[in-house]
Design a protein that fits this description.
Keywords: Disulfide bond. The chain has no helices and five strands. By secondary structure, the chain is mostly beta strands. The strands form two sheets. Strands 1-2-4 form a three-stranded antiparallel beta sheet, with no helix packed on it. Strands 3-5 form a two-stranded antiparallel sheet. A hairpin with an 8-residue loop joins strand 1 and strand 2 (27-32). The N and C termini lie far apart (48 Å).
């Protein structure tokens, strides 16, 4: 039986797009809202990250988003 990660809880300053479902090995894109970038990415152009549903039925942890630097 395939593990189902379900939908992610609301993430601050981002939206989630499920590319191919919510089951094991599915991918979701976490897209930062306008004016934000992926945390700990010091390049302002990195505004999204892909995460994957694990066999344990949980999504990989997202780094989250932060305001873009100057």
């Amino acid at each position: 039986m395939l593990s189902d990660c379900g939908n992610l809880a609301s993430l601050t300053d981002s939206t989630v797009h499920y590319l191919n479902g919510t089951f094991y090995l599915s991918t979701a894109t976490v897209q930062c809202i306008e004016g934000y970038r992926v945390k700990k990415e010091y390049n302002n152009s990195v505004t999204s990250e892909d995460i994957q549903c694990t066999s344990a039925g949980h999504w990989q942890a997202s780094k989250g988003c932060e305001r873009k630097g100057i």
